[in-house]
Specification:
Helix content: under 10%
Structural class: mainly beta
Oligomer: single chain
Strand content: over 45%
Number of strands: 72
Number of helices: 2
């Protein structure tokens, strides 16, 4: 590396008061020389030196070269380091507001491929059609240049409504038929579902906290002949947390009312016990209620005779024996309700076309008339449910009739003041079961719709008894029961009658569900669609010219619709501010390069800006420039000229800065060779680094005659231009300008999944980027996936076992992993965990270092990172870099080849060393590094036995804590 002296020159009147230690200053008007001390300057008294410098100054001249770039033919762009977008004749950031649609017109509305939606150009929005729960907006073709990535931003207003969250099976035994599911929450917060099993008995499922099953199975077996059609049961929980079950047997041989009780863990407290047997047929409705004294009240409807009721003590003994209520022979349904305000029990009975209310004291005595008419409309009540609204002292009843779903509201003290209304419109036949659930100011109703044959739920206001939430269908089913579980979720439990020969019990969870708009994009005219989360860049496998947008609108409730108010399509990255770089490859220039002047053709747009830099050592050091102003390089010996532009786009959508070209003039001051002074060395010191390295260089030159060698190369490691980086592993300290041992990467810089060989990168899934991008030493590239975690990315070391003791992880700022495992393997299939992280909080997204526990440090042929969770919970994971490293106590440094005129035969290597308990060993080669000879430090060594060659390279092996600050080699 040839280093000429660099002087500061000027008039004596402009002489500065201080200069860097060792820096020479020459006054062009008085021909005096000064030397910087670091905190001042001192005159140089060596008259001969001043004369030689004066002679050189008088003989200097300037050489320059002009290079112009227009980005059209063979643009000089370093694609590995450039993150900005290159297009013909232009460099810009990859952000561009390319297309905006605010729905003020239907120009981009593809009505043929859209469905279930309406575009209102006056209101400027797209909504679901009335009564539709799902639809899609599809745009017409948006023509672009070749596009391989886009980002969507949308203007969406979502609303929330009650909707079906999920359905699940309670039973799944296809060999048995399950009917009439009843549900409750017991006093310990467990959820019960009790159902009738045809031909077998009573089944119970009990779920604890979090939905875990505590018990599931048959609790009672029937001790009698059964009739499927009219079997029924009801349940209630007492103050001992036991669940009481009433079962009606309609066998023609013996019609019996049975009662049993179940402990909280599913065991039987009291077996099914016969409390009544008599004439008549039990109709498919009975009622079980526990009063404040802990007594169990049981009522049922009978076709002949009277409706019956009895009251049991908490232990199952009889408190009130079986007693008759009413005198109609066509009773159909019976419901017991406790009225806390008056501390009485209210019985609701349907008889033919009428509903009756009977009030009873808690001792079983009837209060007032037995048959108080609630309504005498000529209706056939196929089923009914009821509750007491104590805020209005009204009994509320709902019934499915042959013509409608109807409701009654009855004053408990004056039943004749009842009101009647039809909630759901004309039926042609009655069907199935109806169930109420009072939910604050609303009443939830579920019933089997006779026309759609589906279970349907709705909500009415408890005050005006008007419908406030529309009918919503679930699926086929006959008998349904509305309730809430222990977590406050609304449940509909039902048997799947009509769907198979043996119905099963199923449960639907109803909850507040938001409307949604899900976006996707295509660049192949709809052949392949890709999900497009808000503000996330979507990368297509290949570039295309035809972008289309699709928005799928959905709602849990057909009366609600999301508002889709428009979208912005962005080519490249997201809409926020964005900074990207353009870096050139090596540019034509003078050799060496001391000065540069840059001008550029650029458009900044509104709020954008571009910062420019130049380098004369291949990008090892960058000097910021102002356009049109000349800059000087700290080390003018270098000859690898490059330019860099840092382009920042604003957050606004007004555009992005771009560059259409630039002109770079490089120049230097050179000495005419005919006046070269033989008293000055041909390769001299750059006195700009620091006093220590300046002294090293000065001593080097003073020792030149000592070794009697004519050629000399000095490298003070001001930059890396003299180092063969690819063949060196020593660690370079950019601040102290020195080499040490330290940390090495076991995976080299990768350019493809299988390059360089034999390394192979792989991943379980790739949505963005590629697996090798975790090992390409760039945080601007990344691997990513939009699918839910877990994910893994692995590296195959090509059969070589290597150890690591640390690793660096860089995550993309929005979707970085938060929980992961670092694992090793020697067969690629069985993995051992070396390090685990859970719930990591990112404060810096680049090169976060993690240490492997000593006990886990072993040699492996494969390594991988296994991600189990990521930020934001969107199912998106992105990682930019993974560096697998180990600390070493020995490392080497190799120079770039020095091309000699004849094969060198002798060499001396001198190093500026800090040993610190370590050591440094030197080697030399004249055939480009194929043959090496040990060269003891500062010792004249013969290398003539090596094969003939003119590529002289030297190498230093650094051990332990030793440091190499600079080196020089003399040769001939």
């Amino acid at each position: 590396m040839t280093i000429p002296i660099k002087f500061r020159r000027g008039l004596k009147a402009n002489l500065p008061s201080t200069a860097t230690a060792g820096e020479p200053l020459f006054t062009e008007d008085t021909h005096e020389m000064f030397m910087g001390t670091g905190d001042g300057i001192v005159p140089v008294s060596d008259h001969a030196l001043k004369m030689r410098v004066d002679k050189l100054e008088q003989s200097r001249s300037t050489v320059s070269h002009t290079f112009t770039e227009d980005f059209i033919l063979a643009p000089r762009v370093d694609v590995d380091k450039t993150t900005a977008l290159l297009s013909t004749g232009k460099i810009r950031t990859s952000k561009l507001a390319y297309h905006v649609d605010d729905f003020s017109s239907k120009d981009y509305f593809d009505s043929d491929n859209s469905f279930g939606v309406n575009m209102d150009t006056t209101a400027k929005k797209v909504t679901l059609n009335t009564g539709t729960d799902k639809g899609a907006f599809v745009s017409t073709v948006i023509t672009t240049e070749d596009t391989d990535r886009v980002t969507l931003s949308t203007n969406v207003v979502n609303r929330s409504g009650l909707g079906l969250l999920k359905t699940e099976k309670v039973t799944d035994d296809q060999s048995k038929a399950f009917y009439y599911p009843q549900t409750l929450v017991d006093r310990s917060g467990r959820d019960w579902t009790v159902s009738f099993v045809s031909g077998v008995g009573i089944h119970a499922e009990i779920r604890g906290e979090g939905g875990s099953v505590v018990f599931s199975g048959i609790v009672f077996t029937f001790p009698y002949t059964y009739v499927n059609t009219y079997h029924t049961h009801s349940i209630a929980v007492d103050y001992n947390n036991r669940v009481w079950v009433t079962v009606l047997n309609n066998s023609s041989a013996a019609r019996v009312l049975y009662v049993g009780a179940i402990n909280p863990n599913g065991t039987v407290y009291m077996s099914l016990t016969n409390y009544y047997q008599g004439a008549g047929i039990f109709l498919p409705a009975c009622s079980t209620v526990v009063d404040p004294n802990g007594r169990v009240w049981i009522g049922c409807a009978v076709t002949t005779g009277f409706s019956k009721y009895l009251v049991l003590e908490p232990d199952g003994s009889t408190y009130v024996p079986i007693t008759s209520l009413g005198n109609s022979s066509t009773n159909s349904h019976f419901k017991f309700l406790y009225y806390a305000k008056s501390n009485i029990m209210v019985a609701v009975i349907s008889m033919g076309s009428n509903l009756y209310m009977v009030k009873l004291n808690l001792d079983g005595a009837v209060l007032g008339a037995i048959a108080n008419t609630i309504n005498s409309a000529a209706l056939t009540h196929s089923n009914m449910d009821a509750f007491i609204d104590e805020s209005s002292d009204r009994l509320c009843t709902c019934a499915v009739t042959a013509s409608a779903l109807v409701t009654y509201r009855t004053n408990i003290d004056t039943p004749a003041t009842s009101t009647y209304s039809s909630v759901v419109g004309t039926f042609t036949s009655a069907r199935g079961h109806v169930s109420f659930y009072k939910d604050g100011a609303l009443v939830r109703v579920v019933y089997a719709h006779p026309l759609t044959t589906k279970l349907t739920y709705l909500a009415v206001s408890i005050t005006g008894w008007s419908k406030v939430e529309p009918d919503s269908s679930i699926q086929d089913g006959l008998r349904a029961y509305f309730s809430k579980d222990s977590r406050g979720k609304l449940l509909i439990s039902y048997d799947s009658g009509g769907r198979g020969t043996n119905p099963q019990v199923e449960r639907a969870t109803i909850d507040v569900v938001p409307t949604a708009v899900v976006m996707s994009v295509t660049n192949d005219n709809g052949i392949t669609w890709f999900n497009a989360p808000e503000g996330v860049e979507v990368e297509f496998p290949t570039a295309g010219k035809y972008i289309r947008i699709r928005a799928v609108l959905s709602t849990p409730n057909p009366t609600l619709t999301p508002d889709f108010n428009g979208y912005t399509l962005v080519i490249g990255n997201n809409v926020g501010s964005l900074t990207q770089e353009f870096v050139s490859t090596k540019l034509p220039s003078v050799h060496p390069i001391g000065f540069a002047t840059l001008t550029a053709d650029q458009v900044l747009g509104v709020g954008g800006y571009i910062n420019w830099f130049v380098s004369n050592n291949g990008g090892g050091d960058w000097v910021q420039v102002e356009l049109g102003n000349q800059v000087s390089f700290p080390n003018p010996v270098n000859s690898d000229l490059r330019v860099k532009a840092v382009i920042t786009s604003p957050s606004s959508m007004s555009g992005t800065p771009f560059i259409t070209g630039y002109t770079l003039v490089s120049s230097n001051i050179i000495l005419n060779p005919d006046i070269a002074d033989p008293m000055l060395p041909r390769r001299v010191v750059d006195l700009e680094i620091n006093l220590l390295k300046t002294n090293f260089k000065l001593i080097t030159y003073m020792n030149a005659p000592k070794y009697g060698l004519k050629n000399m190369v000095i490298d003070t490691f001001t930059d890396l231009s003299g180092v063969d980086i690819a063949k060196s592993q020593a660690v370079y300290d950019h601040e102290q300008k020195k080499f040490t041992t330290g940390i090495v990467d076991i995976v080299p810089l990768m350019t493809a999944n299988n390059a360089p060989a034999p390394f192979v990168a792989a991943a379980d899934l790739v949505t963005y980027g590629a697996a090798f991008m975790l090992f390409d030493r760039s945080t601007a590239t990344y691997w990513g996936s939009t699918s839910n975690d877990p994910h893994w990315i692995s590296i195959d070391l090509g059969g070589a076992e290597q150890t690591i003791d640390r690793y660096l992880l860089s995550g993309m700022s929005k979707y970085a992993p938060t929980s992961w495992l670092l694992q090793g393997s020697n067969n690629g299939s069985t993995w051992e965990t070396l390090h685990s992280v859970s719930g990591y909080v990112w404060t810096n997204y680049e090169n976060n270092e993690f240490t492997i526990p000593i006990s886990n440090i072993k040699p492996y042929k494969y390594y991988r990172i296994y991600v189990t969770a990521s930020q934001y919970g969107l199912g998106v994971t992105q990682i930019s870099e993974l560096r697998l490293q180990r600390a070493v106590d020995q490392n080497f440094l190799q120079s770039k080849p020095e091309i000699t005129t004849t094969p060198p035969s002798k060499i001396v290597i001198v190093g500026d060393e800090v040993v610190a308990g370590g050591k440094i060993e030197y080697h030399a080669s004249r055939d480009g590094g194929n043959t090496w000879t040990v060269v003891p430090a500062e010792t004249l060594t013969d290398i003539s036995s090596q094969p003939v060659g003119t590529e002289l390279v030297v190498k230093a092996t650094i051990h332990g804590n030793a440091e190499l600050n600079a080196w020089v080699y003399y040769y001939e």
